From TrEMBL:
Name this polypeptide is given: Exopolyphosphatase/guanosine-5'-triphosphate, 3'-diphosphate pyrophosphatase
Keyword Hydrolase: yes
Pfam families xrefs: Ppx-GppA
Naturally occurring in which organism (per UniProt): Phytomonospora endophytica
UniProt xrefs under Gene3D superfamilies: 3.30.420.40, Exopolyphosphatase. Domain 2
Stretches assigned to the Ppx/GppA phosphatase N-terminal domain: 17-299
Family matches, as InterPro entries: ATPase_NBD, GppA/Ppx_hydrolase, Ppx_GppA_N
PANTHER family assigned: EXOPOLYPHOSPHATASE (PTHR30005), EXOPOLYPHOSPHATASE 2 (PTHR30005:SF13)
Keyword list, A-Z: Hydrolase
A molecular-function term among this protein's GO annotations: guanosine-5'-triphosphate,3'-diphosphate diphosphatase activity
Length: 305
């Protein structure tokens, strides 16, 4: 069966068209566009006209590709920004008109379960369960613990866009700004861990989404973004600390100079790396496994079923 899944978050909108047969998922196309749908939502409570227009253009392109590739079923999931916005109905009407199906504005816990399903399938055989899966998004971070299925999940409102807009205003951010962001992130992560993994029993930390994969690419010293090398790479806590410090000390222009850096991520990657660093501190993880398979894969599996 050929299916299409779309994940529209605070920072990016992503598309996966895949063929699913039995327990096998094969990519046909996987795409990502930075549209910053959640720009300003933490401050205004609304999706801006400019953000909606950027998203409309990307989604129109996706819809044409889905039709051209003959996907039989389509599911679109909308996450943090769409949960928070007072004018989410405008977004829903726009999506329905372009795609022919309404976006599902899911809860953080539903988001976590889809991310877990996408990330855990296909992990290397030597990776020990239970897993703690962390999906660091633009507006929120989802933590989910489980082995074959979800045991506990929690979403907290710390993401790379939200933390940048709330705290990291200077370029590069000041030490006071970094300390304020660190305190905000730490309090939220502690709350999530108290629900998800209170005894710190998870054996393996799996990190998802662009902040994690970009940090991984920098740790690996890649000149260009290479998903095949990033997927299931293991990076140490010490390396995450080092790269986080380097990113937070750089200007946006200096971060843009990294060959692996997506232009739409350069202004928020410092906050994303900081979330990963604080999470690893709080849960005592010595390393994190980066996964290129995430909520998109979970959406594809769910629509095929």
């Amino acid at each position: 069966m050929r299916v299409a899944g779309i994940d529209c978050g605070t920072n990016s909108i992503r598309l996966l068209v895949a063929d699913i047969e039995g327990d096998s998922l094969t990519d046909v196309v996987r795409r990502m566009e930075i549209v910053r749908l959640g720009e300003g939502v933490d401050r205004t409570g609304r999706l801006s006209d400019a953000a909606l227009e950027r998203t409309r253009k990307a989604l129109t392109d996706y819809a044409a590709q889905i039709a051209g590739l003959g996907a039989e079923r389509v599911r679109m999931v909308a996450t943090s920004a769409s949960r928070d916005a007072a004018n989410a109905d405008e977004f829903t009407a726009m999506v329905t008109g372009i795609l022919g199906v309404a976006p599902e504005v899911i809860t953080g816990e539903e988001e976590a379960a889809l991310s877990f399903g996408g990330a855990v399938r296909g992990l290397p055989a030597d990776v020990e369960a239970p897993f703690l899966v962390a999906d660091i998004g633009g507006g929120s971070t989802e933590l989910v613990r489980g082995s074959r299925s979800v045991d506990a999940a929690r979403s907290v409102d710390v993401g790379c866009v939200r933390m940048t807009e709330r705290h990291l205003h200077d370029d590069p951010p000041t030490m006071a700004e970094i300390e304020a962001a660190t305190a905000d992130i730490g309090a939220a992560i502690d709350t999530a861990l108290a629900t998800v993994d209170p005894d710190h029993g998870a054996r393996t930390l799996v990190g998802l989404a662009g902040s994690v994969t970009t940090v991984t690419a920098l740790v690996l010293g890649l000149e260009d973004y290479d998903s095949t090398r990033i997927h299931h790479a293991r990076i140490s806590y010490a390396d995450v600390v080092r790269v986080t410090e380097e990113l937070l000390a750089e200007t946006r222009a200096e971060r843009l100079a990294h060959g692996v850096m997506h232009p739409g991520r350069a202004d928020v990657i410092g906050a994303g790396a900081l979330i990963l660093r604080v999470l690893m501190e709080r849960c005592g993880a010595e390393e994190v496994i980066a996964s290129e398979h995430d909520i998109l894969d979970g959406i594809a599996w769910s629509v095929a079923g």
